[in-house]
Each structure stands twice: as C-alpha cells, then as structure tokens.
Amino acid sequence: MASLVVTSRDDWLHSFSREEVEMSSKYYVNKFNDAVRSRDRAFERTNESGGIKWTRSLRAHWENEKLIKPIDLNFVQSNYRPFVKTHFCFSRVLAETVYQIPQVFGDGTVRNNAITLMGDSSGKPYFAFAIDKIPDLNFVSPASGGTQTLPRFSLSAEGERIDNITDWGLKQFQTHYKNKTITKDAIFNYVYGVLHDPLYREKYAINLKREFPRIPFYPDFQQWADWGEKLMALHIGYETVKPWDLQRVDVATSATPKPMLKADKSNGSIQLDSATQLSGIPAAAWDYRLGNRSGLEWILDQYKEKKPKDPTIREKFNTYRFADYKEKVIDLLARVTRVSVETMEIIEAMKAAKR
C-alpha cells in the first residue's frame, strides 16, 4: 500500500498515519484556497489542481469563492479493508456523498457495532463482518460493487441513539420462541451468527447474491445468539485478542531487507521480507475468508509497498515503507491468525446444529 490512496468511489484520502493524511489533505486544501483567492481559472482546467476531484460540493465552493476552512476537515480512523484500519479525512466538502454515515457514526468518532455485508452487485463470495467504525465503501471489493452496513443503532440529529431493532421485531422473536427474556442485543447477535452459518450460505447462495438476506428462526435461538456474540467480539476486537504463537525466524543480513509479504499456505508460513519468515500458521487460518481472500491475505496485500497512480501523491506523499510497520504487522498477523482459527471452529460447530 502506498502511504496515501485515493479510493475509487468516495474520494477520501486514506493513510496508515494520521499525520500523513493531515499533511496531504491540507496540501490539496491550500492549493484550492490559493486558487480561490487569486481566482486562477486555469486551476480547474489543468493539472495544477494536483489531482483534486471536482465534487459538487467542491465546485460550489469554487464558484462561490468560498474557502475551505480547517474546521471543515475532520481526521478519523476507518475500516479500510478487513483487519486493516487507516486514517482519512472525513469532510463534507471533500467527500461528494457521505450517505447515512452521520446517522450511524456521527462525525466519525462514534463507535457503533454494525454488520457489513457484500453489496448486491459486488460479484465476490458472500461475507459478513462486524465493525464499529466507518467502513470504506469498497470494503472487500476494491474494483466495484460496494458494501451494505447494518448498524445496531442510528443517531438522531441531536446525537441520541435510536434502536434499529424495532419493538415489532422483538415481539416476533419473543412470540416465536415463547421467551419474553429475549433482548434486542441478543437478536442482533443471533443475526450475525446465522449469517455465518455455512449451510445457510450454501442453501441461499443465489438469493444472497441479489437480495437482502432474510433470517430464519432456528430451533436453538440462544446457541446461535451465543455464537454470534463470540464472532462479533472476535471480529471487532481483533486487535486485542491473544496473539497466536507463530514461529519467527530472522536471517542476519547487512543489506536492507526486501519486502515480500508472500504466503505459503501449504507450509503454513509467510515470508515478510528477505530477512524474516513466520511459520506455524494452522491450515484453518487460511480457510476464514472475506470476499476472495483470507483475513491474513488482506493484511499482506494492504501492507505491500505499491506506487500510487496519482502523480502528486506519488511524488510528494509516498513515504510508506514496510520496514516502518514490520513489527506491527507481525503482531497483527498473530492476532488475526487466532481470530481466523476460532472463527472457523465456531463455523464447524454450526454444521452440526439443528435447523
């Protein structure tokens, strides 16, 4: 991943480092403001805009000679790809459409448990993943498709939480199971559990590719709710789970190690660079997939060194070096290995459940 990436759909600037995304965003804003002050019309017709994408909001600022103020920029952390968080500039001026994000995550700092699903047109293998921060539109589909996110709560204009599980919905579950102690949180967990059921995914594979998922009533509500709760805790809290005991082998070298980030699934190993290899990765860790990649492969892909396509970003802000994040990646891979293995253990247990 380059230090800074312009996403294909939402025009947000992403970076692992908050400092880098602030620096690059302010660079573009300063160029824009300078052009507004001087009324340099060539700015909008040439590459002098430095790669700025002319959204409707930005165009309105330009036509009305309105400057972008520091208060218009809000730097927050997001779920950019599975198990990969980045910082970005969440700005109503720079982002063309923010959809319902303010009603779910407020200014980007509100934590709200949510279930992100494959978009109807993504064409990728089905997935469901729990998050509590803003997800990138193309969470597992960088080329196309997008995702859908189902939050536990919505936010009113005043910031008050509104329950997204209605009283009517609660009554349906309580009536069906003849259990008045069922809670809305348990229903949310139940849904997440069912969405991971391998038999459910197989039976409704065609429907899940083109329709909003429908949730059946399984005989043992509490078991599926418990599974869903465990999965949600693993997937949202992946950075804090106990790391898997991976074996690390370092080879002494006088040269700067060359980044590789290649997986060898058959041998259960990962070659991070020309000096360091990790081994002891269980086969089950590769089986937990989100879209067309395993969780471990998403990490390896995103932390590779890549040249940004945008020339301005490539020349001025391409400061990313894997060596600066190597220890962080090793720790992350060990934790996601555990998350993947324990997720697959739950999924295997689901296969024997009555439906």
Please, could you describe this protein's structure?
The protein has twelve helices and 15 strands. The protein has 355 residues and is an alpha+beta fold. It has a four-stranded antiparallel beta sheet. A four-stranded antiparallel beta sheet has the order 10-13-12-11, with helices on one face. A three-stranded antiparallel beta sheet has the order 6-5-7.
What is the rounded distance between the termini? 43 Å
| Gyration radius, rounded | 22 Å
Query: What is the share of helical residues?
Result: 25-40%
Number of helices: 12
Largest sheet: 4 strands, antiparallel
* Order of strands in the sheet with most strands: 1-2-4-3
Number of strands: 15
Question: Which runs of at least 5 residues are low in confidence (pLDDT < 50)?
Answer: 1-12
Structural class estimated from helices and strands: alpha+beta
The SSE order reads EEHHEEHEEEEEHHHHHEEEEHEEHHH
- What fraction strand? 15-25%
Mean pLDDT: 89
General shape: flat
